[in-house]
Specification:
Layout: E1 2-11, E2 21-28, E3 41-42, E4 45-47, H1 54-66, E5 76-83, E6 88-96, H2 105-108, E7 116-119, E8 127-130, E9 133-140, H3 141-147, H4 153-162
Parallel strand pairs: 1-6
Antiparallel strand pairs: 1-2, 1-4, 2-3, 2-9, 5-6, 7-8
Length: 168
Amino acid sequence: MTSAGLLLYRRRADGRDGDGVEVLLGHMGGPFWARKDAAAWSLPKGEHGPDEDALDAARREFAEEIGAAPPGGEPRELGTVTQSGRRKTVTAFALDGSGFTGAGAVADRPDDGTWVEIEWPRGSGRTLRFPEIDRAEWFDLATARDKIVRGQLPLLDRLAELLDLRSP
């Protein structure tokens, strides 16, 4: 499975929280993740086929999952990581999200056909629909390291390196 996503970042003007950089992460939706916080957040991302450009897919998936178009600007590739027990690769792009105010759109997004549908609990015959991301928030890099799913941790390190920051 191949996915692509955008990791938005911004610099805090007040310089609080160490390096002053924050990243936008989305909390994974659905009953499995509902009561989890640590390692339950992800960059907005989604699957794409072999014929779709990873950056195009990352922009599309951002808009689908966040409910707002990503900001303009020139994304910078962070490379690819493997997560979910080697079953999923994620190619990520860093994008300056200074001024982006669309994070709140996640909570207000209606089911437009992009929501996930699963049987829950498994074997119950009951079907639930929910958004892939149920909320989005900005986190400083240290906090983001606790929030993000483990397979995506290297992306935070690569962002810090890209921005020439000390280790998060």
